[in-house]
């Protein structure tokens, strides 16, 4: 066994928080500020891990289990997604379903941990999160189904290995539609503008941030780190599709993959700087639009 | 060149879907203008082997009319009517989008069963033409402002044109120009009609016109 798969597993764990700071830096530059140091997310995580956690007396074990289970789910999801042309650590036929539902498990535990506090604000956040993700999940699954149909395989690794420059030349409309749908899913699932504003702390408007208000110390560190990993894996689904470069050299492919992710982070930063969060009532329209895009891709594929 | 044709057809589908989900009237006008430009591209790329001056002129006429003149005309009407968005359509925007997906599926299902005299230039052509026509019809029925109905009429006409350009080899130039002239006159007349409706009633909501009756003293 070579060392390459191990490195591919460890890379996301080490580099994921860097994506958060890449987005922040882009937003800062667009706004004319200098921005945080690039390692700030790591300092934040280290600070949170050193602190103790405070638990409300109304909470139960569910509240404590939430961040742990969530981080575990997203760690397993990381092993399923191929990075930089190499095969994922774990792959079998149908692992895309497992991938979608691992993210579902993460969301479920975040939501019940939020509900466990009994706070009405967190209940509102939980309700919104579930509403939007119920609409984002079909878009994700239909988009992956279209790619699976195109490449004729049911495992994320072989699916993404099957997408090459030739596939793009042959089925540009389908892949472009899938990429569009995946971008919307990426922004929604990671609580980014135009769906949610990650910087706001006005309880009435936020979604993801409001659910984690009561977590502190290491628990919050787990949640922030889990969110960074989620950004990484969902970003990798999009980057693997848009930059289908398989040179065969593991190092070159990893560099291309990471550059793609950084590019995606910059795009996210530009999107966040150039538009405002949409009214809650308009967000389902966007998500239904994403579902329509991936349905169209699948219909074109099945024809 | 089928890549270009397919891309143009997918763009047509996407613009129709976008129109189903948009409420702002200026944006609707822009979407239909873009559709006109896509139609021009489709006309040129449909039969690259028999590209002639005739086809180029037709494409220029289509882009000029559907991409520039109509949007300009309708924007003027819109400015005079001072209406910003379609309020309260019969079917909501999300509902329209979902029904649009359904119409798309029906179009694909139907296109497999249609016996065609000559094979189409692309497998996508017939379903996209059907879908564009259906969505235009759907918009005419479900939107209330007269302006959106004119736009929907244009989308309907676009669908029929797509059908013609991909199926019938070498439609006489005269026929195509005649159809374009008809559409031009129709949009012109409808623009004037909207202007008069607006001046008479201070709104362009056609639903309320059904309640009109002879005024008896």
Structure, described:
The complex is a heterodimer of chains A (303) and B (217). Chain A has helices spanning 4-30, 40-50, 61-80, 95-116, 120-151, 156-162, 165-170, 172-189, 208-211, 217-242, 250-274, 283-302. With 303 residues, chain A is mainly alpha-helical. Chain A starts with a helix and ends with a helix. Chain B is mostly helical and 217 residues long. Helices cover 74% and strands 0% of the residues of chain B. The longest helix of chain B has 29 residues, at 53-81. Chain B is globular. The N and C termini of chain B lie far apart (68 Å). Chain A binds chain B through residues 169, 172-173, 176-177, 284-285, 288-289, 291-293, 295-296, 299-300, 303, and chain B through 3, 6-7, 10, 13-14, 17, 21, 93-94, 97-98, 100-101, 104-105, 108, 123-124, 127.
Percent of residues in beta strands of chain B? under 5%
Q: Helix segment count of chain B? A: 7
What gross morphology of chain B would you assign?
globular
Question: What would you call the structural class of chain A?
Answer: mainly alpha
Number of H- or I-type helical stretches of chain A: 12
Terminal-residue CA separation of chain B: 68 Å
Q: How many E strands of chain B?
A: 0
Calculate the mean pLDDT score of chain A and round it.
89
Tell me the layout of helices and strands.
The complex is a heterodimer of chains A (303) and B (217).
Chain A: H1 4-30, H2 40-50, H3 61-80, H4 95-116, H5 120-151, H6 156-162, H7 165-170, H8 172-189, H9 208-211, H10 217-242, H11 250-274, H12 283-302
Helix pairs in contact in A: 1-10, 1-11, 2-10, 3-4, 3-10, 4-5, 5-6, 5-8, 5-12, 8-10, 8-12, 10-11
Chain B: H1 2-20, H2 25-46, H3 53-81, H4 93-113, H5 125-142, H6 146-167, H7 173-201
Helix pairs in contact in B: 1-2, 1-5, 2-3, 2-6, 3-7, 4-5, 5-6, 6-7
């Amino acid at each position: 066994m070579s060392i390459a798969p191990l490195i591919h597993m460890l890379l996301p764990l080490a580099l994921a928080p860097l994506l958060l700071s890449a987005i922040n830096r882009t937003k800062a530059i667009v706004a004319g500020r200098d921005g945080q140091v690039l390692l700030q997310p790591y300092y934040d995580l280290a600070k949170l891990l050193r602190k103790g956690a405070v638990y409300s007396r109304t909470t139960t074990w569910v509240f404590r289990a939430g961040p742990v289970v969530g981080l575990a789910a997203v760690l397993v999801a990381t092993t399923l997604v191929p990075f930089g042309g190499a095969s994922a650590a774990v792959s079998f036929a149908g692992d895309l379903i497992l991938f979608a539902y691992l993210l579902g498990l993460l969301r479920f535990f975040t939501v019940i941990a939020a509900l466990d506090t009994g706070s009405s604000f967190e209940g509102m956040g939980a309700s919104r999160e579930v509403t939007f993700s119920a609409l984002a999940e079909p878009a994700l699954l239909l988009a992956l189904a279209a790619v699976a149909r195109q490449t004729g395989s049911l495992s994320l690794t072989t699916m993404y290995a099957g997408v090459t420059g030739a596939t793009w030349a042959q089925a540009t409309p389908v892949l472009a539609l899938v990429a569009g749908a995946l971008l919307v899913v990426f922004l929604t699932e990671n609580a980014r503008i135009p769906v949610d504003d990650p910087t706001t702390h006005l309880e009435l408007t936020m979604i993801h941030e409001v659910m984690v208000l009561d977590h502190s110390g290491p628990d919050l560190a787990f949640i922030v780190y889990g969110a960074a990993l989620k950004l990484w894996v969902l970003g990798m689904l999009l980057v693997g599709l848009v930059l289908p470069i398989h040179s065969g050299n593991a190092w070159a492919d990893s560099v291309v993959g990471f550059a793609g992710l950084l590019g995606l982070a910059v795009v996210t930063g530009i999107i966040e700087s150039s538009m405002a969060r949409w009214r809650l009532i308009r967000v389902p329209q966007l998500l239904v639009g994403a579902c329509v895009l991936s349905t169209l891709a699948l219909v074109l594929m099945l024809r | 060149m089928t890549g270009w044709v397919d891309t143009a057809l997918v763009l047509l589908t996407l613009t129709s879907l976008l129109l189903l989900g948009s409420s702002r009237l200026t944006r609707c006008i822009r979407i239909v203008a873009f559709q006109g430009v896509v139609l021009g591209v489709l006309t040129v790329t449909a039969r690259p082997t028999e590209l002639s001056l005739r086809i180029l002129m037709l494409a220029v006429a289509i882009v000029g009319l559907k991409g520039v003149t109509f949007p300009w005309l309708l924007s003027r009407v819109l400015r005079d009517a001072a209406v910003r968005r379609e309020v309260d359509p019969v079917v909501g925007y999300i509902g329209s989008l979902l029904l649009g997906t359904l119409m798309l599926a029906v179009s694909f299902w139907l296109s497999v069963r249609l016996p065609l005299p000559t094979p189409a230039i692309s497998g996508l052509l017939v379903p996209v033409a059907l879908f564009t026509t259906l969505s235009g019809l759907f918009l005419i029925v479900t939107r209330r402002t007269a302006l959106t109905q004119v736009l929907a009429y244009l989308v309907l006409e676009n669908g029929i044109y797509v059908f013609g350009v991909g199926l019938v080899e070498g439609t006489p130039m005269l026929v195509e120009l005649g159809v374009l002239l008809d559409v031009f006159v129709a949009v012109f007349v409808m623009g004037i009609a909207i202007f008069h409706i607006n001046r008479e009633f201070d709104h362009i909501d056609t639903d309320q016109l059904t309640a009109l009756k002879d005024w008896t003293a």
